[in-house]
């Protein structure tokens, strides 16, 4: 077929696109590991509290590198797909090679497609996204390493070939499409690009100038009459009314809230440092603290503040945002806001802080 004889279907093209696709996949995989460690840290790992925008940066890179990988993957497949129809000369070796390619392509498409559904907060499946996406990421990374190892001689040969005018045009189109995809979406986490990011899935708008993923109505939250915050620890407990919390020394900090979907926004939060609140209650400040919400059914109705975040003076039990009392959708009567922490763990509608043994 004439289509198969196009100069675009050549190692010179696939090797060059493959390099940038490998970089995009590598960034996506490594920052995905960072995101998973921040949300589900193993016992030996401590996610740092500084810089305060660390999670905002790593998760933004994770999502944007995934966006960049989509046009790169499509261009790479276009450059190499005729080889899949060639008659095998080494039956077993070629069969295994094509099977490894199938695993790589399927895992890559699953990761990119499920990631897009996640940023859109649409989950048309029964499995838990976080665990499955994480496991498939390891499959894709392993398959990519095997593929590079098998294809290394051809990759080297491809870099030695000259790219003619038609091939250069195809490569330029690929770079432009990739750049356009990133610029069209990067505004969700890069403020200076918000005006030109026409496909950004979150805007800076929303109650009190911040986007909202889960509203109080969606969470089924109703603040009871006579609400009090309970601070508990082994051997004791204390309770604070909202007025008593407001009477404690307040701190204002400018902190980003960064969600796993890749969007982030910065606001001025005012509240009581969690460390100071524990001291006022008479509890220890060097232990993890379990934070419980008035929300009962959500996957993140509770979260665990590790000791590093408990001790950080910028970890607040926030009562106000941007100078206003928290709206119900932002967690009234109080919420946790901590530096360098995933948004799903910035628990809203807090009702209990429990110091762990």
UniProtKB/TrEMBL annotation:
CDD domains registered for this protein in UniProt: SO_family_Moco
A Pfam family: Oxidored_molyb
Oxidoreductase molybdopterin-binding domain mapped to chain residues: 224-356
SUPFAM superfamilies documented for this protein: Oxidoreductase molybdopterin-binding domain (SSF56524), Transmembrane di-heme cytochromes (SSF81342)
Keyword Transmembrane listed: yes
Keywords assigned by UniProt, alphabetized: Membrane, Transmembrane, Transmembrane helix
Domain of life: Bacteria
Transmembrane segments: 61-81, 101-120, 132-152, 173-193
InterPro entries per UniProt: Di-haem_cyt_TM, Mopterin_OxRdtase_euk, OxRdtase_Mopterin-bd_dom, OxRdtase_Mopterin-bd_sf
Family matches, as PANTHER family: BLL0505 PROTEIN, PROTEIN-METHIONINE-SULFOXIDE REDUCTASE
Protein's name according to its UniProt entry: Molybdopterin-dependent oxidoreductase
């Amino acid at each position: 077929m004439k289509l198969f004889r196009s100069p675009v279907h050549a190692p010179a093209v696939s090797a060059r696109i493959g390099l940038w696709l490998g970089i995009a996949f590598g960034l996506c995989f490594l920052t995905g590991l960072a995101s998973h460690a921040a949300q589900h840290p193993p016992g030996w790992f401590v996610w740092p509290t500084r810089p305060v925008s660390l999670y905002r940066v790593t998760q933004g890179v994770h999502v944007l590198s995934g966006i960049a990988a989509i046009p790169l993957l499509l261009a790479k497949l276009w450059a190499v797909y005729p080889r899949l129809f060639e008659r095998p000369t080494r039956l077993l070796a070629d069969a295994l090679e094509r099977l490894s390619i199938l695993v790589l392509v399927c895992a890559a498409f699953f990761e990119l497609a499920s990631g897009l559904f996640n940023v859109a907060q649409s989950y048309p499946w029964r499995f838990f996204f976080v665990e499955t996406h994480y496991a498939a990421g390891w499959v894709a990374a392993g398959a990519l390493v095997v593929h590079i190892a098998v294809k290394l001689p051809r990759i080297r040969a491809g870099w030695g070939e000259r790219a003619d005018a038609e091939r250069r045009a195809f490569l330029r189109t690929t770079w432009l499409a990739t750049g356009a995809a990133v610029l069209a979406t990067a505004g969700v986490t890069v403020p200076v690009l918000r005006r030109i990011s026409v496909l950004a899935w979150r805007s800076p708008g929303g109650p009190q100038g911040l986007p909202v993923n889960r509203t109080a109505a969606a969470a089924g939250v109703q603040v009871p009459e006579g609400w009090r915050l309970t601070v508990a620890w082994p051997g004791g407990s204390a309770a604070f009314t909202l007025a008593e919390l407001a009477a404690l020394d307040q701190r204002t900090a400018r902190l980003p809230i960064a969600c796993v979907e890749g969007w982030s926004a910065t606001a001025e939060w005012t509240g009581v440092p969690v460390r100071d609140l524990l001291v006022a209650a008479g509890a220890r400040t060097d232990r993890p603290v379990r934070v419980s919400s008035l929300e009962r059914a959500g996957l993140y109705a509770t979260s665990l503040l590790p000791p590093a975040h408990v001790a950080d003076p910028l970890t607040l039990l926030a009562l106000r945002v941007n100078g206003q009392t928290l709206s119900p959708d932002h967690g009234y009567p109080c919420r946790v806001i901590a530096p360098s922490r995933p948004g799903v763990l910035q628990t809203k509608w807090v009702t209990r802080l429990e110091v762990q043994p």
